[in-house]
Amino acid sequence: MRSAAPEPPDTRAAELVRSAVLADLARRVVADCGADVGLVGVPDARGAQDAEGAEDAMVLRHWAGTRADLLHNLRVPAGTGLGGRALAERAPAWVPDYRAATTISHHYDAAVGADDLYAMLGVPLVHDGAVHGVVYAALRTVVPFGDVRIGAVAELARTATRALAGAAAWGGRAAGRSAEAGLTPREHEVLRWAATGRTNPEIAARLGLSSHTVTGYLKSAMHKLGARNRVELAVAAREWGILG
Asked: The whole model's pTM is what?
């Protein structure tokens, strides 16, 4: 069976940045906003309808402060629970007591109860009209969410969304400049690792290639960028804007 084609390096780099930003967002909700638990849901890549027929959904991929694991990797279709409501309405939603709330569905009471959570807030990550996920702040007490805490979480959400937009834009520029230089995605990937000081055997081991193949990619990149050695290659790549 033929394996799937590898993602372009700029796509993988942008995804790594995205994951780091969202993981940090979950931690900062706890550290900066006084929440007991921070969660971040990201769009479900499957894009298929669930049992209720909902097309939009997210999966809880990042968390901080949890005690149990029932919320980890939980799939939340739009409109279900608190985060699903925020996802569907593209607006913050909150309840002082999740389990007693009458304004949300109760699909996830067992997962919420396992972590002993009560007050919960969900804020969507919105950029250019599209929702890129939802950040949750949750407390292990019954308490109304005040404007200060809602505003603090919303500001973290805005900051994270701007960082995600920047990462996506950088990935697009890097891909365009790499193509302008005539580099293939694999040449770009090998070049990026070489620019960090990795040796050919180290690059080969990381990418699952032979050292001979890595040497071939680097020689090809040197030719295309007019470089005579690895130092000139790294300089030329930066001048092209390929390495960011």
From this structure: 0.66
